[in-house]
Design brief:
This is Rieske (2Fe-2S) domain-containing protein. Its cofactor is Fe cation. Belongs to the bacterial ring-hydroxylating dioxygenase alpha subunit family. By secondary structure, the protein is an alpha+beta fold. It is about 25% helix and about 25% strand. It has one domain: Naphthalene 1,2-dioxygenase Alpha Subunit, Chain A, domain 1. A hairpin with a 3-residue loop joins strand 15 and strand 16. Helix 1 crosses helix 3, helix 3 crosses helix 9 and helix 5 runs antiparallel to helix 9.
Length: about 425
């Protein structure tokens, strides 16, 4: 029997076979609707995606609706304080159940014909359906959901990658001391970038561009903290950073705060990386003066100078955990050339706005940085679309983590497109 190979599979295979290690991806990876279809099926359809933080749904009935591509997913806090995820689609005739990005529900009621579901997804009310209708067979379609120290991940696959459990075991000691579950959302900002989602992620995975483009961010972040490899050009500065980092990590480890780098970006299905790094100058937080943005510290911390714990996950997130606040980023494709970047800032649930913190100060660094990155990735998208673009070489000193992102992406597409 002859097997028909789709145009999507043929194009994807050709591009993957031509991929040159150490170089950026070919233009169709950033422009093609066909490649986006492969991304939605094999990357966003089969892997664990970061979508929200638990403080977004603190009480029973609280929900957030996550939209990406053609997908719409409800994340709901149930009456037992569990976190559940469902396709945001009524089982009757397919209406979207919740239009708003977030809100509060008693039950989940379809606006079309008022089919009603409880917070476990069970259908509890449907008028005029006849004696033979069995409501037990018409509950909402569930989505796999896991929480990791307050971070919410979903997976659309029937059989999600099992190595999430391994990541959770390794990361919980790093994340749990910050007690994200005991925080509240102080601010959330969505921006739409006119670029492919991979450009957004690649830009995040390097700081080659930081000094020239991010004056606000580099007040607090050392240039050498994110994947830099030793080079003769900056040997003395790099050694100084290594010495500062080693001394700080020794102190943090003695306080029960794991700090050593774990790098699993391209050798696991559920790829990730973490490391606690020192903050420059006052050394407290990612703010314009590097002092804490919130006087009410997280958890039971008493020392504000706990550095910044960075946590990156493939394919779509990065996070910074500090003594006083946590900032999380989720990247979700809208189309081949449009991407949603959602940034969420959390502070201690008892912190008082205007007393302990101001939203303006809390968000200043990353609002500025996000705007600058938006310009950079959109200019890259424009250049790639001109026809003059061809893949260029990554710097072996500053872009190794971009290469790891591309390796992970290419390996996962290869695994599913055969």
């Amino acid at each position: 029997m002859t097997r028909t190979i789709s145009a999507q599979t043929l194009l994807t295979r050709e591009l993957l076979e031509r991929r040159r290690p150490g170089y950026s991806l070919e233009a169709p990876f950033y422009l093609s609707d066909t490649v986006l279809q492969a991304d939605m099926e094999h990357i966003f359809g089969k892997h664990w995606l970061f979508v929200a933080v638990e403080p977004q749904i603190p009480e029973p009935g609280d929900y957030v609706a996550i939209e990406f591509g053609s997908k719409s997913i409800l994340i709901v806090r149930d009456d037992d304080m569990g976190v559940r995820a469902f396709h945001n689609v009524c089982r009757h005739r397919g209406s979207r159940l919740c239009e708003s990005h977030q809100g509060q529900l008693g039950n989940i009621v379809c606006p079309y014909h008022q089919w009603t579901y409880d917070l476990t997804g069970k259908l509890i009310h449907a008028k005029h359906m006849g004696a033979d209708f069995d409501p037990s067979e018409m509950g909402l379609k569930t989505v796999h959901v896991r929480t990791l120290s307050g971070l919410i991940f979903i997976c659309l696959a029937d059989d999600p990658p099992e190595d999430f459990e391994q990541m959770a075991a390794e990361m919980t000691p790093y994340l749990a001391p910050h007690r994200l579950q005991d925080c509240k959302v102080a601010a959330q900002v969505d921006i739409i970038e006119d670029c492919n989602w991979k450009l957004t992620m690649e830009n995040n995975r390097e700081c080659y561009h930081c000094v020239a483009n991010h004056p606000e961010l580099t007040i607090s972040l050392y240039e050498f903290g994110f994947g830099y490899q030793p080079s003769a050009e900056n040997a003395a500065e790099q050694q100084r950073f290594i010495d500062i980092t080693n001394a700080a990590c020794e102190r943090w480890e003695s306080m029960g705060l794991p700090s050593a780098e774990i790098e699993r970006l391209d050798d696991r299905i559920t790829g990730y990386r973490t490391q606690r790094l020192p903050i420059d100058r006052a050394g407290q937080s990612q703010t314009m003066n590097t002092e804490v943005a919130s006087k009410k510290l997280l958890a039971d911390f008493t020392d504000p100078a706990l550095g910044g714990l960075s946590f990156w996950t493939q394919p779509n997130s990065w996070h910074h955990f500090m003594s006083d606040h946590i900032v999380s980023f989720s990247v979700l494709p809208i189309s081949a050339t449009k991407t949603l970047v959602r940034t969420t800032w959390c502070v201690h649930k008892d912190a008082v706005e205007g007393v302990d913190y101001t939203v303006e100060n809390l968000t200043a660094v990353w609002n500025a940085t996000n705007a600058q990155d938006r310009r950079l990735v959109e200019e890259s998208q424009i250049g790639i679309a001109t026809g003059a673009y061809q893949p260029g070489p990554y710097s072996p000193y500053t872009e190794g983590l971009v290469e790891k992102f591309c390796n992970w992406y290419v390996n996962r597409l290869n695994a599913h497109s055969r």
